[in-house]
Amino acid sequence: MMKYLDEFRDPGVATALVGRIRDAASRLDRPVKLMEICGSHTVAIFRTGIKSLLPENITLVSGPGCPVCVTAMDDMDRMIALADPAVGGKSIIATFGDMLRVPGTWTSLESRRAEGADVRVTTTPLDAVQWAREEPGRPVVFLGVGFETTSPTIAASVLRARQSGLDNFTVYPAFKLLPPALTALLEAPDVALDGFLCPGHVSVMLGAAAYRPFASRYGKPCVIAGFEPLDILHGISMLCDMLADNLHEVRNSYGRAVTQQGNTKAMETLMEVFEPCDTPWRGLGIIPGSGLSFRGEFADFDAVRRFGLSSVPVGTEPAGCACGQVLRGNMDPPQCPLFASACTPESPVGSCMVSSEGSCAAWYRYST
Known about the structure:
The longest helix has 16 residues, at about 10-25. The chain is of the alpha/beta class. The chain has helices at about 1-10, 10-25, 40-50, 75-80, 85-90, 110-115, 125-135, 150-165, 180-185, 200-205, 210-215, 230-245, 265-275, 305, 325, 360-365; strands spanning about 30-35, 60, 90-95, 120, 140-145, 170-175, 195-200, 220-225, 250, 275-280, 285-295. Helix 2 runs parallel beside helix 12 and helix 8 crosses helix 13 (about 265-275). The strands form three sheets. The protein has a five-stranded parallel beta sheet with strand order 2-1-7-8-9. A four-stranded parallel beta sheet has the order 4-3-5-6. It folds into two domains: about 1-320, HypD, alpha/beta domain 2 (Rossmann fold, 3-Layer(aba) Sandwich); about 325-365, no CATH class. It is globular, with a radius of gyration of 21 Å.
């Protein structure tokens, strides 16, 4: 770690990495498109101007790496409905902060809270378990949005609630699993990608081995990278080197945090409570095996089942919003007709403009 920090302070390292990228690009006889699939990478890339350092034949696009952004409108409308007394009763709705301002078809959690709904922002689902313990007469619903990074902690909160005998704690399961989404992207006829800059946080859980099928079966090199500018530049240089040498491998540039097998204990906890299911993604449609549903023995913790949310009316994507194409890497945010006019961080139309990790929000903040 100390060696890495010393290198981070040396501007010559960044210059050398950019030189490596340009050298590899000069050996390529075609343009290539690389996708970063982590919202934290997206923000770091825009904040540090990394795109401006890349050769003309290297394009970096953002993918479906922001969990709030890929939450389907159906799920948003049903989660917001929980804040309606006619649906959720006197429920306490617990959520991560980024979900508060995401527009549903008709309203948002933020608007519901302004109208008097008890919507509470937290950084941990264990707070929701504690609220359920403190107010046993009220239902407490935690909105379970996230990838493999956060979903194990939510599974652990379900186990804690069961151990405590809490029958007023439930979770809305809107989780997403990353590998099936990458498969969907690679098999989509309108998406053309040459390699992936893989997420650091998710990879801590999944492990480097999870990306082998994308390198072997689809011939797409993958590099796991950290979040500092040097991490990202190093990851891009490794991808460009592999493409120039016609190699399709998985390489780990974030070895100080990511192992081959990942956090097996956390993933075991996750799969103790949940099991894979088909689920909708904003912009990608229904992807087989890409979500998580409660296993039978934990069905009582399922907010969808408890509140009959499957029958709640849902709407459609807002007219003109191009979040789906942005999440597929087919469009840069400024190409959306609503970007920076009808859709801004102060008045968002689509989820990609709301989340702190959203592509549209990052582009708006750092490139306009």
